Amino acid sequence: MTAGSLSGTRRPIASQPETAKPIRTIAGLKWPVALYLLCLIVPIGFNAGSLAMTSLRLLLLLMIVPITLRLIMGYYGRILLTDVLFFAHIGWAGLALAINNPDQVVQQFGSVGMEFIGGYAIGRAYIRGPEDFTALARWLVISVLILFPFAILETLSGHALIVETIRKLPGLTSVVPVAAEPRMGLERVQAVFAHPIHFGLFCAVVMSLAFVGLKGRLPLPFRWGASGVVGMSGFLALSSGALLAILLQLALFAWSTVFARIRWRWWLLVGVFAVIYVAIDVLSNRTPLRVFMSYATFSAHTAYWRSIIFEWGMVNVWKHPLFGIGLNDWERPYYMYSGSMDNFWLVMAVRYGIPAFLLLVLGYAWSLIVIMARDFTSDPVLTQFRRAWVFTFLGLSFTLCTVHIWANIYSFCFFMYGAGMWLVEAQSAATGDATPQPTKVKERVLRHREGTTLNARWETEKPAVLSSRPLGTTVATAPPSPDLPSVDAAMIETKRPTPTYTRFAHRRHDRTDGPRPPRSPRPGQTR
């Protein structure tokens, strides 16, 4: 099995039929993606009978079936291993829900399945090249710039203006305003998402796209300014998980810049992390995971609480390893009054079982490893897009150990993951272009026997050393054919001796004229 395929042979990318109409775009972005982002940042909700619907779920409900069928048929490239593993993950999750919560399986599996597979499929289907990725990055940066004034207002007043306005409209609902405890004297900003953590995570995802992905495609002052606004917006969420993701991305960018001349710089970074892990494990009386959590939170109390969550979460995993506990309450000490579990990866294992967790992690890791292993050194555009996408999800991988995601941000994270799948099979612009270019010397020696010029550049660029030819030498060439516009210099048979070039034209001699004549000494003082 080769990397990136499910069969033994590597098939070419399947493209849309030639008769297919081009997809309309809005400001350079294909309309399904533009509509998806609009539904994401305008959280409109409504009730359809007993179902709680949102504008995003409605869009995914309408698009998930045709997109999935076209994905299976190969309209968006060959089927990748990640596609199979992600579909298997959501299938196992549905089975776990059917076993643990048969009365809620339709509603829960429908919402979670649409948000996960629908988001991934839209990104996988409609972000298919550098132009699409550039348009997506610009849209996301503009989205954060639009939300930034509302974030400033919310951190000062504590009111999410967009959410409260939508909730006042008749027949519509939105996310519930969160009364989070202030930090550092500021209110935590949730903006248009279900929790401040989600807004911070949204800004963290956009950070690498603004700072790295749009390098060379936006003016430098605007790119730095936009990156600063994105970072400040993420800070206003006052979430340690979001700040961790942003700092990790900046650290990875700094590492790639400082060690740009070292090809094995990423293996060096892996070695540094391994040494740090072993040193903490040997020298500290706490596990490396506890040490990491203590520095990845705002307070020691939060770090201690998350360590207890992880410890008792694993107790539940080992008690229900196959299908998890579903939506049932998890076992924990009596003093843990809250059932919140701030660890996305742990929630997947507790709720759906170890098989669902492994299917998700393997699909997530496979594409990351394949894309990181691609050689894009001949194409700087693909290199910076790959770097932006990989930095985003390396930072997100660590952040999801400290936060849980659901609803819109859950769909968005895997939408962005699907938006990078084109990098698995992207071809560098210079791939296969090994045709040597004709040199100027070949262009300058094309002449025919009548003395007329076969190349106009001979008259305009003729060097002085080639213009003086010894008397008695001739150039024998074949007469030019009227059917051939030019003659290759390698096909011309010349009797002219190979000249020896020196700094002084009067000292030039030809190798075929015999031995070099003795040089008479110059008068005057010698050196």
Written account of the structure:
By secondary structure, the chain is an all-alpha fold. It is 54% helix and 2% strand. A two-stranded antiparallel sheet has the order 1-2. A hairpin with a 2-residue loop joins strand 3 and strand 4 (51-54). Helix 7 packs antiparallel against helix 15. The protein is globular and about 60 Å long. The protein starts with 24 loop residues before the first strand and ends in a 60-residue tail after the last helix. The relative contact order is 0.10.
Outline:
With 527 residues, the chain is an all-alpha fold. It has helices at residues 31-41, 55-72, 81-100, 105-126, 130-157, 161-168, 196-213, 220-236, 240-258, 265-283, 288-295, 300-319, 344-352, 354-373, 380-399, 407-418, 440-444, 457-461, 464-467, and strands spanning 25-26, 29-30, 45-48, 51-54.
Please describe the topology of this protein.
Elements: E1 25-26, E2 29-30, H1 31-41, E3 45-48, E4 51-54, H2 55-72, H3 81-100, H4 105-126, H5 130-157, H6 161-168, H7 196-213, H8 220-236, H9 240-258, H10 265-283, H11 288-295, H12 300-319, H13 344-352, H14 354-373, H15 380-399, H16 407-418, H17 440-444, H18 457-461, H19 464-467
Antiparallel strand pairs: 1-2, 3-4
Helix pairs in contact: 1-2, 1-5, 2-4, 3-4, 3-14, 4-16, 5-7, 5-8, 7-8, 7-9, 7-15, 7-16, 9-15, 11-12, 12-13, 13-14
